[in-house]
Amino acid sequence: MPQPGPPSSPIVPVLARQIAAIRLGDDLLFEAVIDADRPTRREVFVYQPRQDRPAFAHSPTAGMIACRHVPHATVFVHEDEVPVPGPLGVRVNGQAAALPSVPAETALFAGRRTLIAQCNGETAANAQDWLAWHAVHHRADAALIVHRGTPDAAAAFRTELAARIGGDGRLAAMGPVMVLGFDAPLGRAGAGPEADPMYAPDAPGKDRMTAPEPDPWSAPLGFTLLYDLLRARFLGRAAAVARLELADLLHPGAEGRTVFDALTAQDEAVILLVGERAYPWAQRREETDFGDHSCLRFDASEYDRSWCLQPDRLPQGVIWMPYRIVGAKPRVVHRWGFWRCMALRYGSGKVSRIVARSALQEDAGLLAMGRFFGAEPERISADTGNAKHLPAREVTGRRTAVVTTMKNEGPFILEWIAYHRAIGVEDFLVYTNDCTDGTDGLLQLLMRKGIVEWRENPYRESGMKPQHAALDAANSEDVIRNADWAICMDVDEYIAVHTGDGTLNALFDAVPDANMIALTWRLFGNADIHAYRDGFITQQFTQAAREMSPLPHQAWGFKTLFKNVGLFKKLGVHRPKGLRPQAVRRIQWVNGSGRPMPEGEWRSAWRSNTDTYGYDLVSLNHYAVRSADSFLVKRDRGRVNHVDRDQGMAYWFRMNHNVVEDRRMERALPRLRAEYDRLMADPEIAAAHAACVAAHRAKIAELKAEPDPAAFHAAITAPRAQRLARLHGHFGLNVYLAGPEVIPEEIALLPPEAPFHFNVDRVAETQH
Question: What span, in angstroms and rounded, lies between the C-alpha atoms of 33 and 183?
């Protein structure tokens, strides 16, 4: 890659221009531009920041020969019979204005390879490096920088830029650089400063951000005809024009080839520019520069677009828009890449405010770019020495650990442990809180006998929700840190292996290269069983959702069985979290059918979709409701994660699916029975289990004696609720958000096989 040459004291003219505007109501009318080749022709540009209504500009002395509208802006072309000096008198939507007429200065950039960009918070030092990069790598020899700030700020920027580039040897061949200001702001109506993380496209947690106060001088660009105005006023005779931002660097070409060479070599007049968003790993200084940007998002799915064009080859009447040329579409095969250095535009001071750092991966091209600027960016390093983070380690075995949280689940613990021991789980780490049904006593007994590890949930001292507190603590536990494979799951979830002999070994054999397996939920309903009985959950409840059940969105949540090799830093409810950037290329994540999970799902996905669900090899059977009696107890004790949400009628409706029969868990019964009987052969364990069952029955009786729980029990066991449990697949999203009360009786009475779809208008508040 070419390096900066020795200083040769080049003389780079830095020109100053300002465009005046007249305000009519909310609209801005800019100076009428006189065509350099046709002095009788004038173009009037109007910015309409608050509406898309077409403005109409009429001149009594000149005929309007063209009018083109785009969102929030309009351009009018007037033709005089003879050149008319002085202002152009116009009426816009009934309001009169006298627009100054200014001759186009297209000779300034005639025949030059010209860059155009906005400056909206970038520094003169950034602009100097931006010019140097494109002068060296693309032989650009002119630039027009639109300064979006106030006239005073634009003047200060121009003065500093002129002082900086006067002796920069990298700019020896650079021609005129114009700093163009406006005497009125061009920002989007109602928007705040563009540098605010709210406007960074990849910023995490936008829903938790507070919108900045409006500032039209620094807001994102609202005047969509800015570049068409530049065409008419300055750039119509340029040899080529590349539209970038001051945060953008065009990729260097092979063997010195430039973007302008590529443009000249193709048949079309426009080449598409496609931008990758680049980020620093860390911002170490107050003022970030290009060389700090060393990382790209490994899971990027959106790219920024711009253009490079030859004005004299464009057809008449095209419009230069910020991201495309209206009337001259480039062929997709003709493109050139660029990096958008995001910390220059969105200078938040912390990279994590504008992108999830777990998505970042170092890029060799960016590191080479940094060397051009003499930079040494902070590098991604291995995460070592943190006891709260899962360690990076070699794994050759298959020892599997489960971490779970419980509250008053006593009657269901032994079957769950016996089943998972029978299919190959060896270690259980269980956190409990506030139990009153004997759960703690049973688990403490099982721990003394070497069957589980039990811990009191530290949620009170941590200030976290119970489930999150447990997982945070589990990161430091040897039973998890030393496991070969691990998963976080609940006592109402069962790993159902559908391949081989139904064990985890059979699953691992089916996907030998995988180190992550997404187990998609299969919701199992109550099968119209209302009364609690002490029997195997997996054998009582055999009515389930269809495999193709994208709604409600909870139906396809997944939990992740992962190889404990340090790809992620910590446990999460649905999947491990904190993707280690240096480990990205080692991920081999498959779904329940053994198909690869897309990269876009790796960082934060928690549910499957129509492209990623799969049940051929394994599912996670989710017995979220069990019997109506037991659901009363579940509702009474509350949730371990969403502690502020009731489990009411809407929850029962969403999770109770009795649509199809699935008896595949019956083949696990011999293994389950053998392991369960072995545990129950211990008199202490049998007695502890019996005590939990008795406490559960007593709680059911207590709740059914109270008016509100009794009424709720009557509602979920009523014929209407039973019918609705068989109609899943016929309802739209908003029905699940609103709850079953919105379903008319004539719909509830339809047979499951009837061809119908029912939905309602979107609801203001989701029911739980």
Answer: 16
Give per-residue pLDDT as tens, 645-667.
568 999 999 999 999 999 999 99
In whole angstroms, what is the distance from residue 355 CA to residue 205 CA?
Answer: 10
Residue 364 has pLDDT above 80, yes or no: yes
Residue 3 has pLDDT above 60, yes or no: no
Distances (CA, A) of 215 to 185, 242, 652, 661: 9, 28, 48, 60
First-last CA distance in the chain: 60
The SS3 assignment for 118 reads: strand
Would you give the distance in Å from CA 118 to the centre of its chain?
26
Amino acid at the residue 235: L
Q: Which of 255-264, 596-605, 630-639 shows the lowest mean pLDDT across its residues?
A: 630-639
Distance CA 107, CA 111 (A): 9
Rounded CA-CA distance 335/327 in Å is 18
Query: DSSP string spanning 240-307?
Result: EEEE--TTEEEPPPGGG--HHHHHHHSSSSEEEEEEEEEEES---SSS--GGGEEEEETT----EEEE
Record the pTM.
0.79
What is the rounded CA–CA span in Å between residue 556 and residue 522? 7
d(CA 425, CA 494): 11
Judged against a pLDDT cut of 50, whether residue 247 lies above it is answered with: yes
Whole-number pLDDT of residue 764: 67
Q: What is the pLDDT of residue 338?
A: 98
Strand partners, 379: none
For every residue of 175-220, DSSP letters joined together read --EEEEEESS--BPTT---TTSGGG-TT-TTGGGPPPPPP-TTTSS
Distance, in Å, from the CA atom of 247 to the CA atom of 596, rounded to the nearest integer, reads 35
Q: Residues 210-246, buried b or exposed e (16+ Cβ, 10 A)?
A: eebeeebebbbbbbbbbbbbbbbbbbbbbbbbbbbbb
For the record, the structure tokens of 372 come out as 């051009």
CA 405 – CA 489 distance, rounded (Å): 8
CA nearest to 170, candidates 300, 6, 15, 290: 6
Q: What's the mean pLDDT in 43-56? A: 78
DSSP classification of residue 53: P
295: left (phi over 0), alpha (psi -120 to 50) or beta: beta
Return the pLDDT at 710.
Answer: 97
DSSP H or E run through 635: helix 628-637
226: helix, strand or coil: helix
Per the structure block, which two tokens stand in for 168? Answer: 């920069």
Q: What is each CA distance from 180 to 187, 228, 233, 402, in whole angstroms?
A: 15, 14, 11, 63
User: Whose structure tokens read 């139906």?
Assistant: 555
Work out the percent of the chain whose per-residue pLDDT is above 70. Answer: 93
